[in-house]
């Protein structure tokens, strides 16, 4: 499943020694006070909220200013740089760079940033050139042989958007450096700059394929540029250079298995795209509906799952580096509790209100057959995907605990098997169940991956299973009641989905009723997550 994710580090080489070799200094400086984990989480969540809301606005602009034909070709074209971005930049960088970076002293960190950024730029330049030259062959891998998407238009737009890979990779380096030192504000709000810049370009430029692609690149430039002042202010701005550094090998070794995992996930994404573009299975417009559902799902996943995990990841890495397993287990339990407490009601509400949720990107009700297909496909996929939100919240947290301990081989093995299984489930369920098959496949895969990761975690450091299980046994039934209440309220209202202005009141009333049921039940059960919010409101 995509998605929509919608969110991831020795001394200088001339001394030929590692940080561990140096021994403690005679008079260690006092440790800098740790930043508030709650404040970090709030910053990341606010940045993610801004990013996802502006992303929905960008999706609204794309859907209402461009034809389904152009939109679907664009969606397929940006798949290639997005695929390579996850393989080489955002996910792999955050999850491999930070644990290694945190083990070095200040001089080692500067050298590592300089060396690693130089290597990554060189690799991205090579891949960008190959992507432009091999665009026709790459598009043939993405689209079904009996495609409902314009192939020639997709090839043209793929070549246009390939430079985005370099822009997003440089932005990922900036994000990794800032996050490693727990500077989350600029990196968290950088995607907002991407969306605002691309929206402005889409609105101002001609409504043609080449200008649509240029708007995407302008957004990539903005996402990089807004992080540069913060890097300079904190003394983290690297000067990329092709120099050797012993820690680069550690990062690459960490990235290699994660890249393999991301590669398995991208095989899944490619297979999904081939399914959606197969005219024998789905009508034209289904792929556009899928990407709309992905944008909305990614917003919820990024805000309520990825943001808390991203904020706590440096703490996981620090606890692992210090071998403080008591703190590590406590962080694991609290992060799982937080993410599932937030994810469970969102899952239930999206299942109950999916047609109204997908309507927030429609400035008018569907008018043509293609627009109707796009709307119904988006609602169906969003509803089925929402089943997987809680299982994948667990997977997201648990995977980060393995990366923090530099146990990437175990995480990679479980992830790769999970994604292969998901491909098999798609192949088995989607042709017979249609859109529902997407969500069921992802849910089953997420549950099995959670089980495997839990077993491996318990063997290594002892999993807080009783606390997590007790929490889930309370929040999941509450979420079911919440979704049921929202569905009943929506059914009672004489408003049909399909148009943003009429759907927002339904979401406010039905969603508000569902959340009231959930929070009321949480208060009755005295869940600490809602009690903490109550204490803050009383101050």
Account of the protein in words:
- This protein has 539 residues and is mostly helical.
- It has helices at 19-22, 37-65, 68-77, 79-88, 90-101, 106-133, 135-142, 151-161, 164-180, 185-204, 209-225, 228-233, 246-276, 286-321, 325-358, 369-385, 389-404, 408-433, 436-461, 465-492, 500-524, 528-538.
- Helix 6 packs parallel to helix 13 (246-276) and helix 20 (465-492) crosses helix 21.
- It is globular and about 60 Å long.
- It starts with 18 loop residues before the first helix and ends with a helix.
- The model is unreliable at 1-33 (pLDDT under 50).
Core attributes:
539 residues; mainly alpha; 78% helix; globular; disordered N terminus; Lipid_II_flippase_MurJ/MviN
- Kindly, what is the distance between the CA atoms of the first and last residues, rounded to a whole number of angstroms? 42 Å
Uncertain spans, ≥5 residues at pLDDT below 50? 1-33
The whole-number mean of residue pLDDT values reads 82
Query: Would you count the extended β strands for me?
Result: 0
SSE order in H/E notation?
A: HHHHHHHHHHHHHHHHHHHHHH
Gyration radius, in Å: 23 Å
Taken from the alpha-carbon principal axes, the silhouette is: globular
User: How many DSSP helices?
Assistant: 22
Strand percentage lies at under 5%
Q: Give the helix proportion (percent range).
A: over 70%
Describe the main β-sheet briefly.
none
Tell me the structural class.
mainly alpha
Protein name: Lipid II flippase MurJ
Subcellular location: Cell membrane
Organism: Deinococcus radiotolerans
InterPro entries: Lipid_II_flippase_MurJ/MviN, MurJ
């Amino acid at each position: 499943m995509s998605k929509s994710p919608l969110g991831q580090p020795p001394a200088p080489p001339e001394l030929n020694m590692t940080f561990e070799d140096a021994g403690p200094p005679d008079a260690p400086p006092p440790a800098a006070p740790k930043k508030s984990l709650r404040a970090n989480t709030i910053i990341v969540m606010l940045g993610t909220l801004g990013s996802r809301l502006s992303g929905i606005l960008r999706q609204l602009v794309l859907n209402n200013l461009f034809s389904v034909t152009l939109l679907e070709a664009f969606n397929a074209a940006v798949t290639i740089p997005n695929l390579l971005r996850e393989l080489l930049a955002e996910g792999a960088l955050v999850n491999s760079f930070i644990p290694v970076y945190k083990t070095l002293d200040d001089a080692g960190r500067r050298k590592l940033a300089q060396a690693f950024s130089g290597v990554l730029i060189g690799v991205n330049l090579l891949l960008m050139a190959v992507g432009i030259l091999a665009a026709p062959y790459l598009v043939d891998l993405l689209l079904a042989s009996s495609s409902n998407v314009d192939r020639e238009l997709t090839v043209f737009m793929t070549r246009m958007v390939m430079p985005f890979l370099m822009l997003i990779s440089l932005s990922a380096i900036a994000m990794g450096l800032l996050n490693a030192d727990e500077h989350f504000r600029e990196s968290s709000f950088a995607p907002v700059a991407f969306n605002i810049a691309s929206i402005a370009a889409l609105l101002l430029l001609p409504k043609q394929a080449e200008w649509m692609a240029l708007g995407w690149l302008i957004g990539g430039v903005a996402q990089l540029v807004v992080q540069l002042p913060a890097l300079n202010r904190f003394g983290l701005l690297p000067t990329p250079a092709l120099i050797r550094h012993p820690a680069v090998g550690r990062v690459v070794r960490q990235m290699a298995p994660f890249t393999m995992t991301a590669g398995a996930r991208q095989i899944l994404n490619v297979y999904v795209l081939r399914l959606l573009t197969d005219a024998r299975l789905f009508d034209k417009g289904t792929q556009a509906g899928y990407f709309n559902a992905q944008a909305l799902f990614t917003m919820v996943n990024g805000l309520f799952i990825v943001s808390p995990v991203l904020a706590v990841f440096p703490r996981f890495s620090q606890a692992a580096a210090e071998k403080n397993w008591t703190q590590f287990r406590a962080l694991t339990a609290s992060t799982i509790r937080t993410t599932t407490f937030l994810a469970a009601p969102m899952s239930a509400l999206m299942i109950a209100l999916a047609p109204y949720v997908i309507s927030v990107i429609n400035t008018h009700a569907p008018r043509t057959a293609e627009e109707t297909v796009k709307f119904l496909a988006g609602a169906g996929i969003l509803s089925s995907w929402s089943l997987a939100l809680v299982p994948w919240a667990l997977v997201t947290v648990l995977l980060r605990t393995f990366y923090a301990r530099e146990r990437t081989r175990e995480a990679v093995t479980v992830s790769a098997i999970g994604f292969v299984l998901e491909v098999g489930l798609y192949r088995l369920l989607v042709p017979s169940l249609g859109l529902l098959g997407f969500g069921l496949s992802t849910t089953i895969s997420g549950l099995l991956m959670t089980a495997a990761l839990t077993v491996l975690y318990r063997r290594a450091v002892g999993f807080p299973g009783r606390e997590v299980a007790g929490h889930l046994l309370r929040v999941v039934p509450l979420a079911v009641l919440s979704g049921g209440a929202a569905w009943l309220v929506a059914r009672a209202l004489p408003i049909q989905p399909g148009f943003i202005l009429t759907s927002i009141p339904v979401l406010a009333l039905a969603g508000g009723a569902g959340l009231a049921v959930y929070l009321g039940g949480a208060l009755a059960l005295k869940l600490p997550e809602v009690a903490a919010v109550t204490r803050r409101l009383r101050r």
